[in-house]
Amino acid sequence: MADKKKILLVDDDPDFVEAVRVIVESGGYEVRVAYDGQEGLEAVAEEKPDLIVLDVMMPVMNGHAACARLKADKATASIPIILLTAVADRVTTSTYTHRDMLESEAEDYMPKPVEPAELLALIKSWLK
């Protein structure tokens, strides 16, 4: 049997992390979690995941900063990143905008709350 693909899930909401972990594991993937951007960078260095699901609004280091650091590093630049964001719901109260999403170097982004089937389809499409 082939090794399971490793997905790194980075989000500061433990309930959301657990829900998404269950969804992603149901797709046959191995999941590692981190709870902020800095922890996410450390996990990438240790694990070398096949794909990263990264929240935007987090303490310590936000998802845009973590994404920029990963894409600037030759060792991690090729790892696909899917940004998850509730920005669409919080444009008026957030400093993040849709332009930030589009200007990010992430391969894709998905609004929160996530649809389980859509998230799995997106992960699968980037791991082909």
General description of the model:
The chain is of the alpha/beta class and 128 residues long. It has a single domain (6-126), classed as Response regulator (Rossmann fold). Helices cover 43% and strands 19% of the residues. It has 6 helices and 5 strands. Helix 2 packs parallel to helix 3. The chain is globular, with a radius of gyration of 13 Å.
Outline the fold blueprint.
Elements: E1 6-10, H1 14-26, E2 30-34, H2 37-47, E3 51-55, H3 63-72, E4 81-85, H4 87-90, H5 98-103, E5 108-111, H6 116-126
Give a brief rundown of this model.
With 128 residues, the protein is of the alpha/beta class. Helix content is 43%, strand content 19%.
Please identify, by name, the CATH architecture.
Answer: 3-Layer(aba) Sandwich
Order of strands across the main sheet: 2-1-3-4-5
What name does CATH use for the topology? Answer: Rossmann fold
Instruction: Please count the beta strands (DSSP E, at least 2 residues each).
Output: 5
Overall geometry: globular
CATH class: Alpha Beta
How widely separated are the two ends?
17 Å
Number of domains: 1
Number of distinct helices: 6
- Structural class by SSE content: alpha/beta
- Taking all Cα atoms into account, the compactness measure Rg is 13 Å
Task: Return residue spans where pLDDT drops below 50 for at least 5 consecutive residues.
Answer: 89-102
- What's the rounded overall pLDDT mean? 85
Fraction in helix: 40-55%
What pattern of helices and strands is seen along the backbone?
EHEHEHEHHEH
Strand residues, percent: 15-25%
Major sheet attributes: 5 strands, parallel
CATH level-four homologous superfamily name: Response regulator
